[in-house]
Task: structure prediction
Amino acid sequence: MNKMILLLVCLLAFATLPAGAEEATEKTTEKPADKPAETVEPMHFESSGSVRIGGKNIEYTATAGTLVMKNEKDEPIAEFGYTSYVQKGKDKTDRPILFAYNGGPGSASFWLHMGILGPVRTVVEDVAFTSTGPFRRVNNEYSILERADLVMIDPVGTGFSRAAGETEGEAFWGVDQDIASVSDFIARYITDNGRWQSAKYLLGESYGGIRSGGVAYYLLANHSISLNGVILVSPYMDFVAGNAGIRIDLPQVNYFSTFAATAWYHNAVADRPGDLQQFLREAEAFAVNEYAPLLHKGSRASAEERQKVLAGMERFTGISADYWDKANLRIDEGRFTKELLRDRGKVVGRIDSRFTGDSINHIAESMSYDPFFPAVGPAFTATFNDYYREQLGVETDRKYITSGKLWTRWDERHAQPGVGQWRKVPIANTGVDLNHAMIQNPKLRVLVQQGYFDLATPYGATQYFLDHMELPRELRDNISVKHYEAGHMMYLHPDSREKFSRDLAEFVR
Result:
């Protein structure tokens, strides 16, 4: 009887369902249809222009846009942004091509673009705050377009470049990921634009040094593309040798000569000599012959040895022996920039230690801001965006990302040549990659352009990585080093800008 009642209840319930309810119930259990793949289209904005260099006009075609990069399944993985300048009426076989980028990691290429390489240049007042408009851009008589065609590259996460399709940005944000993606872009550009026969150059600034060392080798090993030259501007190449404050003594020694240069510039040393070069040679010798051995001894150093070195540190850096003693003879550049001019209420720049700004927190242990960026950043950002959209005709509502701050998410591991591709060292030194590239392409030449007042990538660290490249003696003649009495972006200093342009043009020629 109970079974009959239950059956009738179920039948009545089913009979009272609204029409179509059982179809609706079935439909809700179906998997949703696959969404159609998003179409990724390249941006392409072409225009004509001219730049006057050395009394003559160079006519060029400018192209601003993106290339859609794809994986082996022909699926889009990235929109890769670039700006190219190609001289009109020239045989591509005879015309060199230079690929250039800034560093960060996470910086777009607008600094080099508007500072020294491109056809227009942002006007800023050296070591002053050019922070209110209207800002100016002018014809750049120092542009490399006199010698070579130019491709400015914005790695994924900067400029208009971004991951596409199912790919996430993290697929590009690491030492090896970045090297591979930039190399693949260069190979693709060469193919699309018929530049296989052109002489090819790389120019990277700051973290662009790590990128260039890796790209030079990756292009050769994976695309069979050999370069004519690599230009390293204020290069960061070796994590260990180039980072003070990480409880490793080597970078402390490498930074010391730039501490001395900065103290000399700001008249912070007693009995300051008039000759910077003589002062630097003495500081370099002290760092290697007295400071480094004491650091190596650690607690085994005698009190007399320690006091002697502390006196030398005060002499060369202008910071008291007592401060150095309390810091156990080791400070990073952040503390140095705060302490050097503390009694004047000023903080010194890191990117360019010639710059100063008012201190925000007078008792802080390290800098609250780098005065270099607010001094020149607004002018570069404004003039680039205006030039890109008004003169090059780029029409998009997409924001040009000047700094993606990708270093906060960067994979520092590197599959260094010689240790096996199945293993990655935890931190990068692509001086090793460049070493392999030079040995396998013995005609590859390297130009290093380095400022004395650069606390981001000090010239001592650059010299260290060069000295420790395992090259045959004859290949060392392929490396040339040029120094400038300026900072990280030495081309903002008028005299250094002119010298930088001459040195680069001669190298490419």
